[in-house]
Amino acid sequence: MIHLRPFIFILAILLSIQSNSQTDEQVIREIYTQSLTNGKSYDWLNHLSNQIGGRLSGSLNAEKAVAYTKEELEKLGLDKVWLQPVMVPKWVRGAKEYAYIETKSKGFETAKTTTVNICALGGSVATNPLGIKANIVEVKTFEELKALGEEKIKGKIVFYNRPMQPELISTFEAYGGCVNQRYSGAVEASKYGAVGVIVRSMSLRLDDYPHTGAMSYGDLPNEKRIPSAAISTNDAELLSTMLELDKSISFYFKQSCKQLKDVLSYNVIGEITGSEFPSEYMIVGGHLDSWDLGDGSHDDGAGVVQSMDVLRLLKESGIKPKRSIRVVLFMNEENGLRGGNKYAEVAKQKGENHVFALESDSGGFTPRGFSFDCSDANFNQVLNWKPLFKPYLIHYFEKGYGGADIGPLKTDAVVLAGLRPDSQRYFDHHHASNDTFEHVNKRELELGAATMTSLIYLFDKYGVNPIPNQKAIKN
Ligand SMILES: [Zn+2]
Predict the structure, then answer these.
(1) What does the DSSP 8-state code read for residue 124?
(2) Which of 82, 111, 307, 372 has its CA 20 to 30 Å from the CA of residue 407?
(3) Are strands 250-254 and 415-421 parallel, antiparallel or unpaired?
(4) CA of 460 to the centre of ligand 1 (A)
């Protein structure tokens, strides 16, 4: 004899839950609807980009961006909004750089100069005030440089011209294959007595924009630090062709950039305190600083405003998080990562249990999905949610990199994730003067914010499961 009463009882409970709460499909639909009809991300980005502009660490604009985003977060009625102090490096570009290629007079041909587009790399020293002029040697790899050695390099300018590989589908992978020329090119070239470094811009497009970005001298003594600059891809092609025809050409460049003393700045943080597990933290963020050439709309104004909108969209969609959800707008990702390091340092000091961190720092383009830096077991939890994102054409769920600013939080006890937008156009704009507001599409930006909010909603509702290594939390 089967007892039906327990089954009827359970069914009644299930039906009552169903009638009181929405399904995940319905909640996520509501999040996307809110973002696409009532989103704030684009308006915020308009202000950051067009009213404030480029936000290099330590600049007045960076401080304006701190004040503006704090004020906007305060308007959202979050439980807490605060500034987290952090000392940041201050590098200034100075007067606009100037460069030309010079050919020698030969026979009937007179000497000729052709001006080219360059910009100093972030962290570089200046040239002497009159600029430097020297013969120039093209290489594609550090091995090639080493093979040429001091004999061929001493007293010359090294021109790194390894392009990003166009056949790679992920442009980030193509970037990864080239960026050591920019970051370590000066250190390597100075080993052989080079007097300066010119690096092909990290872009897949042929155009006239030089792309800046961080470089490092490591622990090189001051007298060994040689100026380094990026050259536009069009001018890199020109320079390479001219060198092929005539090795005796010289290159002139002048830049007046400077590293000043560190200055006080801030991470901007807002929080919705969790209703059931307030001491479990989930964060979402992007970086508030940017390079100075453009207005930093894609890198990373987009990530900043999307992250702000995550907390607003949760509220607008009537979601009351069980866990504490924070938006963190990190300062100084581009040339120091001081904000990301400071946030993790303070979290550790306070013993805050961070279980999930999501970063958006790959541009404001159409979202494709996420990459996850976590255990296989935690990744399986995420894969179960994949069908919920299908209606929004979000399909990319892979293990991989989370992001630079959330990286310092990494332990076995936290799941890290990065939003992965379409990457095809990102490096057309990255760190260049055409990283500007008009290149961000409103709907693409809003779809990204909704995609991020949906993932935060799911992690908050179900918790990070299985619970990551508790031992790591205590360490
Ligand atoms: Zn960035």
Answers:
(1) P
(2) 82
(3) unpaired
(4) 26
Q: Is the model's pLDDT at 475 over the cut of 60?
A: no
**Is 333 an annotated catalytic residue?**
yes
What class does CATH assign to 94-256?
alpha beta
Residue 14 exposure: Cα atoms within 13 Å on the Cβ side: 6
Distance 259 CA to ligand 1 centre (A): 21
Residue 468: cis peptide before it, omega within 30 degrees of 0 = no
- In the predicted structure, residue 298 carries a pLDDT above the cut 50: yes
Residue 442 reports pLDDT greater than 70: yes
CA angle 229, 334, 198 (to 5 degrees): 10
* pLDDT tens per residue across span 68-77: 999 999 999 9
Using pLDDT thresholds of 50, 70 and 90, give the confidence band for residue 17: very low
Work out the average pLDDT over 179-203. Answer: 98
Tally Cβ neighbours within 10 Å of residue 172. 17
Residue type, position 126, single letter: A
- Residue 383, pLDDT > 70, answer yes
Sign of the Cα torsion 384, 388, 389, 391 reads positive
CA of 178 to the centre of ligand 1 (A): 17
Distance 14 CA to ligand 1 centre (A): 46
Using a cut of 0.85, tell me whether the model's pTM lies above it. yes
Q: What type of residue is 121? A: L
Neighbours of 243 (CB within 10 A): 19
The mean of the pLDDT values for the chain is: 94
For 399-416, give one letter per residue: b (16+ CB within 10 A) or e: ebbbbbbbbbbbeebbbb
Report long-range pairs for 222-226 (Cβ below 8 Å, ≥24 apart): 224/190, 225/125, 225/186, 225/190, 226/125, 226/186, 226/189, 226/190, 226/194, 226/195, 226/196, 226/197
Catalytic residue among 188, 271, 316, 333: 333
pLDDT band, residue 13 (cuts 50/70/90): low
Joined tokens for residue 78 = 């979050």
Centre of ligand 1 from the C-alpha of residue 23, in Å: 35
As a whole number of angstroms, the distance between CA 28 and CA 454 comes to 6
- CATH label, 22-91+261-462, candidates 1.10.10.10, 3.30.70.3040, 3.40.630.10, 3.30.720.120: 3.40.630.10
Distance CA 360, CA 449 (A): 9
Question: 182: CA distance to ligand 1 center in Å?
Answer: 16
For the chain, the structural domain boundaries read: 22-91+261-462, 94-256
Q: How much distance in Å is there from the Cα of 437 to the middle of ligand 1?
A: 15
